[in-house]
């Protein structure tokens, strides 16, 4: 009987899911414009970045586009032309983001125009960040657990979390919504999909909680499923709220940051 | 006026007289009918041949072994033949209707040996009009080496021309460029929705209980329908009605058993088969506390009984129950299962009319357990089909076999129900169940018009009624809800009616070759939404509704079939062209599992698939086998994808080659090998990259513009039948190796940041199986 068990385990482990790095003959498309615009309810300035895509096998440095006309308005009569600070970065000067406003972005680069709207939802406050232990793919890991209460509705709240560990951005995208949790305290933890899926004692973590509108939520969930390279859904470009054919997004969201130390 | 009337009347009278005279001119016609069975076990022989010796006339038995032949009064010698059995001749003096039940003997004397002498699929391709079909004998299925030694009907089908594997270890398959949900898999006529265990590693069909498998690749006769690409008609054994027999086997991962026998000798019998994995034992013995609480495994149970009630009636009951459990402790749980049950009654009216009435239930259910910090919740889904089927087969004369009937299925799908434990931070909720009623009427005739020409013509009409209760939506171009309509229970939301004409002809050029041509339209009302090439049991089934129209396929095919003079070899070539409408694809990154209004994530368009299949078979002698080659293309054009261009669908396989060889050295040893090669699936690779919120994102400029590397693999196997030596059981040992030259075929390729260099990105290929040896031991009694 024992031998059978050993054999069974051997069979199961004899190259099941072996991986190797391969070099693919990829065709590079001409560079596409990428726009990242973020308006938050924290004090400004707010940043809109314009840059270009680069080839897959090139290094991750992206050429910024200067000389564009970038305008943001808040639907309450406040309009601002952003300052071109070079390197593809455009900053607001006076605008203050407020929940409930519909923000509109308009961009002119040469003869190409791009625009987007995003609604900043009402704030769902981040009460605290706790550190707890869960089981993730069979291992006991330490994770951050954002503490907040989902609004009871009507309507849904959409969230995006960014976690920074010892100053380095955690690449996992954390996003969820209140559809099944209306009125309930949050039960989800930030479970990393990185091979090193645990926090370590002594780590200093910073959590940003964003409340977004539905279109931006779908952008992040679509991006994670189809464009982050992990082979989930059929690959493709996430549905963006930008018109005009640019990649990227324009997001008006509330932002709360809390830090914690892992003991 | 009066003159004309008289002329007309006399003309009509003359015509009638002529007809009556013609009909009765020395031609008293009588019918011979009966059932053809295996003498040793009582199993009815499906599609056995009944021919009049010396004349090119006859018929075949139906799925229950029943035949009916009408001839003019006289003396005849009838010849009964079928695969693996010795032919039987019977002399008949025909001067009244006669019932003649026949039993045939195995070609080998020893009843416990496998019947391998002519381990062939002589599916009479030369006769009739049936195109794009294959029949597999269980002998071949048992001898073909497969992954982990588990003989698997659905994996062996993937070695036939026109059938492409959906990927390593996957029981899903594409027939003539169609999606996996376009194949209707029937167990004794009832639909099995998820015919795979453990994410596709094994099929739900326990080979110990199966008698016959027929595959129709598109040009199906009118009594079949419901899916666009194919029908896999899997028939279970009836059970030996004379003596008890069985088989117990143990493999690397599973143990299985089968028992069959009479309830009342020669009148009724039963068969029971069971199979379960042994993995959980190994897991729970592990000292690692995270492994010993994992559960990976499945079980399945097949049962069937039949009763002969007098000379004209037979009653059958059959059931299948299977459950899978893939639970990783505190990480996720995945459970799913199929259950199928049917009750069937056959009756013979007179001597020419055979009827079958079936009521059946098919259930498919899944349960996903999601773990959150201190608790968990379940997402459950269920699909239920309640069906009634009535078939008539009428054999008016040798030249015609008429089949007509109706099939009605009431579908209920409960897409997702959330059951939350306290502390999970999640509320109980459920999506609305969906209801639909699908009814098909069919009628068709197989007409042997001349000695050489056979014509099959018929029509199937499928109606689908979308039913309440529930909310139904009108959507705008972006998938946003414009309007919500409420319907009450049983209220009809929308009707769809689709005629499906079926037409086929076969012309025998000479005694050894035939050409055929066919046209068929097929309609599909149940759709599997799968937003990824890897099949997962959580993929979602949907019914046709006010936004999702029935899928339609029109297929034209032509073929040439030739047998060598000695009958040892046969080869055939078939070409097809298929046009599909109302094909479904998804908005990028769509989440299909937890979306109530799933239609807002769907995009629609058309498809086309065409190709040529060639097969060379050696059907007798010590060495048998076949070589099949398919050259094909399958494309989609969906509004909203890839700028509305035609693109290669995931089911496109340019070249698909299978070589199968089975060598029966002597009754004690059988060796087999198979080699498969196919062009890699179309995939989308990035054409660039950028950054969003600090993460690297890949840019795609085209859909399916690349292909995975070609797939090929060699499997070797051997089966040793130990000599019987006065024991009441016989031992059998099967061993072999899957992927003998250890090729690491690409299962999927994904992209990530180089773990050693944050400024670079790289492509990573994952392979599922390297070389995997297997052995199984079985005892047959």
Uncertain runs of chain A are 7-13
Q: How many E strands of chain A?
A: 16
Question: How is the quaternary structure best described?
Answer: heterodimer
Number of helices of chain A: 2
Largest sheet of chain A: 9 strands, mixed
* Order of secondary-structure elements of chain A: HEEEEEEEEEEEEEEEHE
Q: Nearest-angstrom radius of gyration of chain A?
A: 22 Å
Low-confidence blocks of residues of chain B:
1-8, 20-25, 109-123
Structural class of chain A: mainly beta
In which range does the helix fraction of chain B lie?
A: under 10%
Alpha-beta classification of chain B: mainly beta
Describe the structure in brief.
The complex is a heterodimer of chains A (263) and B (781). Chain A has 263 residues and is mainly beta.
Task: Describe it.
The N and C termini of chain A lie far apart (about 45 Å). In chain A, strands 2, 3, 6, 7, 12, 13, 14, 15 and 16 form a nine-stranded mixed beta sheet that branches. In chain A, strands 5-4-8-9 form a four-stranded antiparallel beta sheet, with no helix packed on it. A two-stranded antiparallel sheet of chain A has the order 10-11. Chain A has helices spanning about 1-15, 215-225; strands at about 15-20, 35-40, 45-50, 70-75, 80, 85, 90, 100-110, 110-120, 130-135, 140-145, 160-165, 170, 175, 205-210, 245-260. Helices cover about 10% and strands about 40% of the residues of chain A. Chain B has a 22-stranded antiparallel β-barrel.
What is the element layout, followed by pairings?
The complex is a heterodimer of chains A (263) and B (781).
Chain A: H1 2-13, E1 16-22, E2 33-40, E3 47-52, E4 69-73, E5 79-81, E6 83-84, E7 89-91, E8 102-109, E9 112-119, E10 128-136, E11 139-147, E12 158-165, E13 168-169, E14 174-177, E15 204-212, H2 214-226, E16 247-261
Parallel strand pairs in A: 2-16
Antiparallel strand pairs in A: 2-3, 3-7, 4-5, 4-8, 6-7, 8-9, 10-11, 12-13, 12-14, 12-15, 15-16
Chain B: H1 2-24, E1 29-38, E2 49-52, E3 57-60, E4 66-72, E5 74-81, E6 88-94, E7 98-99, E8 102-104, E9 133-137, H2 138-143, H3 153-157, E10 163-165, E11 173-175, E12 183-187, E13 190-191, E14 196-197, E15 202-203, E16 210-216, E17 230-236, E18 245-250, E19 254-264, E20 268-277, H4 279-284, E21 295-309, E22 313-328, E23 332-349, E24 353-372, E25 375-397, E26 400-420, E27 429-430, E28 434-448, E29 453-467, E30 470-475, E31 481-487, E32 492-510, E33 513-524, E34 526-529, E35 540-543, E36 551-563, E37 569-586, E38 602-618, E39 623-638, E40 647-648, E41 655-666, E42 669-678, E43 682-683, E44 688-692, E45 695-699, E46 706-707, E47 711-721, E48 730-738, E49 748-754, E50 757-769, E51 772-780
Parallel strand pairs in B: 1-7, 1-8, 12-17
Antiparallel strand pairs in B: 1-4, 2-3, 2-5, 5-6, 9-16, 10-11, 12-13, 14-15, 16-17, 18-19, 18-51, 19-20, 20-21, 21-22, 22-23, 23-24, 24-25, 25-26, 26-27, 26-28, 28-29, 29-32, 30-31, 32-33, 33-36, 34-35, 36-37, 37-38, 38-39, 39-40, 39-41, 41-42, 42-47, 43-46, 44-45, 47-48, 48-51, 49-50
């Amino acid at each position: 009987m024992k031998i059978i068990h050993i054999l069974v385990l051997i069979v199961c482990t004899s190259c099941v899911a072996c991986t190797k790095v391969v070099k693919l003959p990829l065709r590079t498309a001409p560079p596409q414009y990428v726009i990242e615009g973020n308006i938050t309810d924290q004090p400004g300035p707010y940043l809109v970045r314009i840059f270009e895509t680069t080839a897959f096998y090139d290094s991750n440095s992206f050429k910024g586009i200067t000389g564009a006309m970038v305008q943001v308005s808040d639907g309450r009569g406040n309009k601002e032309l952003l300052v071109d600070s070079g390197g593809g970065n455009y900053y607001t000067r006076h605008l203050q983001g407020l929940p409930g406003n519909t923000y509109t972005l308009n961009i002119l680069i040469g003869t190409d125009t791009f625009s987007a709207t995003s609604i900043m939802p009402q704030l769902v406050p981040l009460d605290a960040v706790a550190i707890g232990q869960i089981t993730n793919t069979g291992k006991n890991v330490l994770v951050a657990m954002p503490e907040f209460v989902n609004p009871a509705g009507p309507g849904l709240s959409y969230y995006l979390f960014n976690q920074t560990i010892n100053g380095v951005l955690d690449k996992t995208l954390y996003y969820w919504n209140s559809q099944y949790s209306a009125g309930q305290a949050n039960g989800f933890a930030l479970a990393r999909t990185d091979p090193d899926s645990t926090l370590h004692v002594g780590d200093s973590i910073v959590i940003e909680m964003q409340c977004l509108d539905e279109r931006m939520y779908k952008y992040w969930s679509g991006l994670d499923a189809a464009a982050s390279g992990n082979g989930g859904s059929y690959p493709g470009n996430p549905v963006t709220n930008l018109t005009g054919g640019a990649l990227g997004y324009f997001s008006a969201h509330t932002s709360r940051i809390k830090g914690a130390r892992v003991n | 006026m009066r003159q004309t009337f008289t002329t007309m009347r006399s003309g009509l009278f003359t015509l009638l007289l002529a007809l009556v005279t013609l009909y009765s001119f020395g031609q008293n016609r009588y019918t011979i009918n009966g059932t053809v069975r295996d003498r040793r076990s009582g199993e009815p022989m499906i599609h056995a041949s009944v021919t009049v010796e010396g004349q090119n006339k006859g018929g075949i038995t139906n799925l229950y072994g029943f035949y009916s032949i009408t001839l003019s009064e006289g003396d005849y010698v009838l010849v009964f033949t079928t695969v693996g059995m010795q032919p039987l001749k019977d002399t008949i003096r025909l001067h009244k209707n006669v019932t003649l039940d026949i039993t045939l003997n195995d070609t080998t004397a020893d009843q416990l040996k496998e019947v391998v002498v002519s381990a062939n699929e002589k599916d009479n391709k030369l006769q009739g009009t049936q195109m794009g079909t294959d029949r597999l004998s269980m002998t071949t299925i048992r001898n073909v080496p497969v992954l982990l030694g588990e003989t698997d009907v659905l994996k062996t089908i993937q070695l036939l021309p026109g059938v492409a594997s959906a990927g390593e270890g996957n029981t899903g398959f594409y027939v003539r460029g169609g999606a996996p949900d376009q194949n209707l898999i029937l167990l004794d006529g009832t639909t099995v929705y998820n015919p795979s265990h453990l994410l596709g590693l094994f099929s739900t069909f326990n080979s110990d209980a199966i008698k016959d498998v027929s595959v129709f690749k598109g040009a199906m006769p009118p009594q079949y329908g419901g899916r666009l690409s194919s029908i896999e008609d899997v028939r279970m054994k009836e059970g030996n009605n004379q003596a008890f027999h069985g088989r117990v086997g143990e493999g690397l991962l599973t143990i299985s058993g089968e028992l069959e026998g009479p309830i009342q000798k020669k009148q009724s019998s039963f068969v029971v088969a069971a199979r379960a994995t042994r993995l959980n034992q190994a897991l729970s013995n592990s000292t690692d506390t995270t492994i010993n609480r994992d559960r990976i495994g499945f079980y399945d149970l097949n049962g069937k009984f039949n009763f002969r009630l007098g000379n004209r009636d037979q009653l059958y009951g059959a059931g299948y129950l299977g459950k899978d459990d893939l639970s990783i402790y505190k990480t996720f749980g995945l459970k799913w299962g199929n259950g199928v049950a049917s009750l069937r009654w056959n009756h013979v009216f007179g001597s020419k009319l055979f009827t079958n009435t079936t009521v059946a239930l098919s259930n498919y259910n899944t349960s996903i357990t999601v773990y959150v910090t201190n608790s968990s919740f379940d997402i459950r889904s269920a699909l239920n089909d309640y069906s009634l089927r009535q078939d008539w087969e009428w054999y008016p004369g040798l030249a015609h076999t008429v089949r007509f009937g109706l099939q009605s299925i009431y579908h209920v799908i409960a897409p997702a129900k959330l059951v939350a434990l306290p502390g999970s931070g999640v509320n109980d909720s459920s999506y609305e169940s969906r209801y639909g009623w699908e009814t098909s009427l069919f009628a068709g005739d197989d007409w042997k018009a001349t000695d050489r020409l056979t014509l099959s013509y018929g029509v199937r009409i499928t109606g689908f009624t979308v039913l309440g209760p529930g909310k139904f939506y009108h959507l705008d171009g972006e998938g946003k809800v414009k309007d919500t309509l409420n319907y009450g229970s049983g209220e009809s939301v929308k009707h769809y009616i689709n005629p499906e004409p079926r037409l086929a002809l076969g012309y025998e050029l000479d005694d050894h070759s035939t050409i055929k041509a066919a046209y068929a339209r097929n309609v599909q009302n149940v759709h599997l939404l799968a937003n990824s090439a890897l099949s997962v049991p959580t993929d979602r089934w949907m019914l046709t509704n006010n936004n999702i129209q029935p899928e339609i396929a029109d297929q034209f095919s032509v073929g040439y079939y030739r047998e060598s003079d000695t009958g040892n070899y046969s080869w055939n070539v078939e070409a097809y062209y298929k046009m599909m409408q109302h094909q479904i694809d998804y908005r990028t990154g769509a989440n299909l599992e937890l979306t109530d209004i799933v239609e807002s994530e769907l995009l629609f368009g058309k498809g086309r698939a065409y190709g040529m299949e060639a097969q060379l078979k050696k059907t007798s002698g010590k060495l048998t086998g076949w070589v099949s080659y398919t050259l094909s293309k399958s494309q989609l054009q969906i509004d909203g994808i890839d700028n509305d261009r035609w693109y290669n669908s995931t089911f496109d396989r340019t070249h698909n080659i299978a070589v199968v060889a089975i060598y029966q050295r002597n009754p004690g040893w059988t060796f087999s090998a198979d080699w498969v090669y196919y062009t890699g699936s179309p995939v989308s690779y990035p054409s660039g990259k950028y950054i969003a919120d600090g993460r690297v994102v890949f840019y795609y400029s085209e859909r399916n513009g690349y292909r995975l590397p070609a797939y090929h693999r060699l499997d070797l196997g051997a089966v040793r039948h130990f000599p019987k030596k006065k024991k009441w059981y016989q031992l059998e040992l099967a061993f072999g190796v899957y992927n003998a030259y250890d090729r690491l075929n690409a299962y999927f390729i994904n992209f990530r940041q180089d773990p050693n260099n944050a400024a670079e990105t790289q492509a990573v290929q994952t392979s599922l199986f390297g070389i995997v040896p297997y052995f199984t031991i079985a005892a047959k009694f």
